[in-house]
């Protein structure tokens, strides 16, 4: 356990973009290799760019500094890709307090994503009098709410928004409740 939460509640980040990029590169390499193999079978010889690469590789001095540099760079890229797969990402959720239920045995835990906390804070603000629109961002320790209002005097509204969001997050069961900051834009 790390930080009091079991590993199962610590989801890894998506990594969809690197996976798509690697997949597209491998797909392109596969298409080129299939095309070259079909060309070899139908024409009886490899395509000119394949022979040019093999001729160029035959002329290289494998013990030259350039070859060593290229090898080290490729090894570092491979190591970075391997570490990207193996190292888990940062935990991006806030723990919730659960009321123990007699019918459930064992230890139950729940979390709420930072995005869900931000959406809950913004939705809470949008139902308050004097708030025309609201948006929010959340981190592990802070929720920042941006409010747009047509009101000219915003001092009381800032307190209402702060107290309303704090009480809503407490009622949800966030423990501890993040620090709430509010910025208000007035439509003067």
Question: What's this model, at a glance?
Answer:
The protein has 188 residues and is an alpha+beta fold. It is built from five helices and five strands; from the N terminus they run H-H-H-E-E-H-E-E-H-E. The chain is elongated.
Q: In words, what does this structure look like?
A:
- This is Alkaline shock response membrane anchor protein AmaP.
- The structure is a single chain.
- By secondary structure, the chain is α+β, with helices and mostly antiparallel strands.
- 49% of the residues lie in helices and 16% in strands.
- It is elongated.
- The two termini are 52 Å apart.
- It has two domains: 10-86; 110-186, Alpha-Beta Plaits, CATH 3.30.70.1350.
- The longest helix has 28 residues, at 16-43.
The quaternary organization reads as single chain
Q: Order of strands in the sheet with the most strands?
A: 3-4-5
Q: For the CA atoms, what is the radius of gyration?
A: 28 Å
pLDDT average, as an integer? 82
Strand tally = 5
Order of helices and strands: HHHEEHEEHE
Tell me the fraction of residues in β-strands, as a range. Answer: 15-25%
As for the number of domains, it is 2
Enumerate how many helices there are, as a single number. 5
Percentage of residues in helical conformation: 40-55%
- N-end to C-end Cα span: 52 Å
Overall spatial form: elongated
Pfam family, one: DUF6286
Protein name: Alkaline shock response membrane anchor protein AmaP
InterPro entries: DUF6286 (IPR046253)
Keywords: Membrane, Transmembrane, Transmembrane helix
